[in-house]
Amino acid sequence: MLQDSRRSSVLSGKSDELGEGWRSPITRRVFLVSSAVLAGTMMTSASASPQGTETMYGLISKVDVVSGQRDALVSILLEGVAGMPGCLSYVVANDPENPDAIWITEVWDSQASHDASLSLPSVQDAIAQGGPMIAGFSERIVTAPVGGHGLTS
């Protein structure tokens, strides 16, 4: 539970961990942006990872974007997605019913890899650039992926 509070503080921009003066709500790229982005209950899954030693961790987040800034935010989020250790899938999608919303779907080899990604320079840059474009986070769902196209179960 303590980790949930810490993550909520970091992602909402109310934590000193992001540096002095940070106040914009953001997930990681969620967030590349937790990503992000996003308060919720942390769960442990019972699924096997591709390596068979840890559990896969999934996150689906709906990000509310400042009006007119969706394309700019999507661009920022997609810039630094390569080279995130443990990231098996990172998809940014426009919400077809809301021009001021996007969905971010992530699959990681473990929750630890996801958590560690929040300190990567590319993620920190995305938070700094994209934060002012984020109006808030309306949904955050933690999942326990078991496999799929591109994922080894």
Describe the protein's architecture and organization:
The protein is of the alpha+beta class. The chain has one domain: Alpha-Beta Plaits, CATH 3.30.70.100. 25% of the residues lie in helices and 25% in strands. It contains four helices and six strands, in the order H-E-E-E-H-E-E-H-H-E. The protein has helices spanning 2-12, 70-79, 111-117, 121-130, and strands spanning 28-29, 31-32, 57-65, 87-94, 101-108, 134-143. It has a four-stranded antiparallel β-sheet with strand order 4-5-3-6. The longest helix has 11 residues, at 2-12. The relative contact order is 0.25. Mean pLDDT is 75; it is low at 1-51.
Distance between the termini: 28 Å
Give me the strand/helix succession: HEEEHEEHHE
Strands of the largest sheet, in order across it?
Answer: 4-5-3-6
Number of DSSP-assigned strands: 6
- Low-pLDDT segments: 1-51
The largest pleated sheet is described as: 4 strands, antiparallel
Overall number of structural domains: 1
Helix share of residues? 10-25%
> If classified by CATH, what would the architecture be?
2-Layer Sandwich
Q: Rounded to an integer, what's the Rg over CA atoms?
A: 14 Å
Q: What is the CATH class designation?
A: Alpha Beta
Q: In oligomeric terms, what are we looking at?
A: single chain
The count of helical stretches stands at 4
Shape: globular
